[in-house]
Amino acid sequence: MILCITEKPSVGRDIARILGATSRHDGYLEGNGYCVTWTFGHLCCLKEPSDYTADWKHWSMSALPMIPPRFGIRLINNDSYKKQFQVISDLILKCDEIINCGDAGQEGELIQRWVMQKAGCKKPVKRLWINSMTDDAIRDGFNNLKPEKNYEPLYMAGLCRAIGDWVLGLNATRLYSLKYGERGQILSIGRVQTPTLALVVNRQFEIENFKPQDYWELKTIYRDVVFSYSGKKFEIKEKGEEIVNQIKDIPLVINDISKKSGKEAPPRLFDLTSIQVECNKKLNLSADETLKTVQSLYEKKVTTYPRVDTTYLPEDVYKKCGPILNSLTQYKELLEPLRGRKLAKNKKVFDNSKVTDHHAIIPTGQHLPSGLSDSELKVFDIIARRFISVFYPDFTFMQTIVSANCDKYNFKATGKTVTSLGWKAVYSDVSTDDDASNDKEEDSILPEFTKGESGQHKPKLVKKTTQPPKFYTEGTLLKAMETAGASVEDEDLREALKANGIGRPSTRAAIIEILYKRGYIVKERKSIKATQAAKDLMAVINEELLKSAKLTGIWEGKLRKIESGDYSPEEFINEIKALVYEITMSVMKDSSDRRILTTQIQTEPSKKKSSKKKK
Fold first, then answer.
1. Could you report the per-residue pLDDT of 193-246, keeping only the tens digit for each?
2. Rounded distance, CA 374 to CA 391, Å?
């Protein structure tokens, strides 16, 4: 008998149907030589401190740092989890072979391996690895099962991540809570949450300490077109007024007209972070809401695996794109321009070197089932339009720059004429953030000018004021986590910085939710703001690695290298242990009597909740 272990019951039912395992039992399905059972996500976790020694049950500075000689796992204390684990354990004893059908990612690998390890599994194991839950994808996956050893580095990366979060999170949380917590409150510290919080706090300090300054720009109007002065802005109004008075009666002379064509390629396909950013911007969905929605679309077979960090497709998916597009019958008008010609294939979409285990999020080609929620329909629309748009031609335009001078002062006007909407036609019937760009001077359509012409004009000073940086939204905070705090709009540079981003795409939404629950951040409309407790906490943390997005991003890069087999797991864990020793000694030496009060619900007396893994 072959045993298949999935990550959730719904996935188990889908796989059992394909395999012909239709006989229902308590906790599993059986038939055609297969048994299909499931976990409920994590059934096991790393042991609690008190599981190692009674000395670690109670919070005490003298017990820190807590470093077990060897890490172990335990069943989560939940009756339904224990019951299902017993089902899995009994089936492992009876089977001849196991197929790991966990979600195809680091967390899925960890969930399955911990369960099999806890059950004392000695049976041979193969791995099912699929990008979507369609029937064809499941069949293809079972026809191409992989050896378990192929995913050993993936498991080791997940294990190192869990151990690193345990060692740093539990020790630092106890350390800072005991040292600085007011009235026994817990100060939650984590390898990912603390540098993320630092991003929010630092941005807020920039805004609060910002001193606006007035400045003036010199412009002049000629033939109803606004020309801007090519020199520097004026910090003293009177200097600008001198020039206005000097040139107001002198004709403006057109001395050059240049035209050049420009183009803008379609935006990249979605990875998890970019779909979360887009849905936050367009639909005001939180990162967590978007993840749950895309996960639901995946489980309903209409989009591919969501927890991905690539915006590319492998080249062998190209042949499937035509049928997928044809399935999008609700977009008939948008698909019409693509018919009758070969689909575009370029390296910004199809690149095997940029895809490892999973590809970008795209529709699967399955028709939408009835009963989808409003959020599911809207998110699917965003994914489908992005997929359609990458096969459209570039948006093209003609940019005109008109140079002029008045006396010794140079001016210029810039205009843009659209020559082909290209991929932007896919969005012509939906509102976009680009709509506001029509008001920009550089996007205006200019009249015809002739070199050498001149005439009267109306110079003026336009008062402006420097603006502070904007508060983070969930979307912009996700982007900052992805790029380790760097402000990046260029998609190529964004791709390059992903290797050292903070956290993983699948966990970033949860990290933001943790910061809300801990009372460290609050949301005002779309803006994320730090509480006083968050500011106070950042003030007492002197260890840069605990709160530096850049340095924490380097850790993430090492975890990715472990996943690819290019870095030592032991070295990573030893670095974390050394850091915890250093932090503990530093905090214990602090002779100040600072205290931090948070608004979170947790308090010190039992400390039971606080012993959970902190990221």
1. 999 999 999 999 999 999 999 999 999 999 999 999 999 999 999 999 999 999
2. 27
Tracing tokens 């906490």 back to the chain, one arrives at: 537
Task: Determine the Cα–Cα distance for residues 558 and 129; give it in Å rounded to an integer.
Answer: 24
- Model confidence pLDDT, tens digit, residues 137-184: 999 999 999 999 999 999 999 999 999 999 999 999 999 999 999 877
Q: Report CA 58 to chain centroid distance, whole Å.
A: 37
The whole-number pLDDT of residue 104 equals 86
Reading the block at residue 221, the tokens are: 């109007």
Which residues are bridge partners to 270 per DSSP? 361
CA gap 7, 392 in Å, rounded: 38
Catalytic residue among 180, 305, 392, 427: 305
Gap between the Cα atoms of 461 and 483, Å rounded? 39
Q: Where are the beta strands (DSSP E) in 372-424?
A: 395-406, 409-420
Helix (H) or strand (E) holding 295: helix 287-299
Determine the residue type at 395: F
Residue 305 is among the residues annotated as catalytic for this protein? yes
Q: How sure is the predictor about 357, in pLDDT bands with cuts at 50, 70 and 90?
A: confident
C-alpha–C-alpha distance, residues 417 and 142, integer Å: 53
Residue range 572-590, pLDDT digits in tens:
999 999 999 999 999 999 8
pLDDT at residue number 443: 67
Quote the pLDDT of residue 182: 84
CB 285 within 8 A of CB 382: no
Query: pLDDT tens-digit profile of 264-308?
Result: 999 999 999 999 999 999 999 999 999 999 999 999 999 999 999
What's the distance, Cα to Cα, between the start and end of the chain in Å? 39
Interhelix angle 532-540/193-208, nearest 10 degrees: 110
How far lies 499's CA from each of 45, 58, 336, 495, 565, in Å? Answer: 27, 39, 39, 8, 15
pLDDT greater than 80 at residue 612: no
Exposed/middle/buried for residue 609 (C-beta within 10 Å: 0-12, 13-18, 19+): exposed
Number of H helices, E strands in the chain: 20, 18
Q: Please, which pLDDT band fits residue 410 given cuts at 50, 70 and 90?
A: very high
Phi-psi region of 134 (alpha: psi -120 to 50; beta: other; left: phi over 0): beta
Q: What percent of the chain has pLDDT over 70?
A: 94
Supply the DSSP symbol for 234: B
**What is the pTM for the complete model shown?**
0.86
Strand partners, 97: 2
The CA distance from 590 to 101, in Å, is 50
How far, in Å, CA of 410 to CA of 36, rounded? 76
Six-digit token string for 496:
């390059």
Rounded-to-integer distance, Cα 459 and Cα 216, Å: 13
CA atoms within 13 A on the CB side of 254: 20
308 close to 361: Cβ distance less than 8 angstroms: yes
Amino acid at 444: S
Angle between helices 549-563 and 193-208 (to 10 degrees): 150
For residue 525 the two structure tokens come to 């409309």
Q: Give φ, ψ of 422 to 5 degrees.
A: 55, -130
The angle formed by the CA atoms of residues 350, 353 and 355, to the nearest 5 degrees, is 70
H or E segment at 13?
A: helix 9-19
Cα atoms found within 13 Å of the Cα of residue 581, Cβ hemisphere only: 7
In 68-151, which ranges are continuous DSSP H helix? Answer: 79-94, 106-118, 135-143
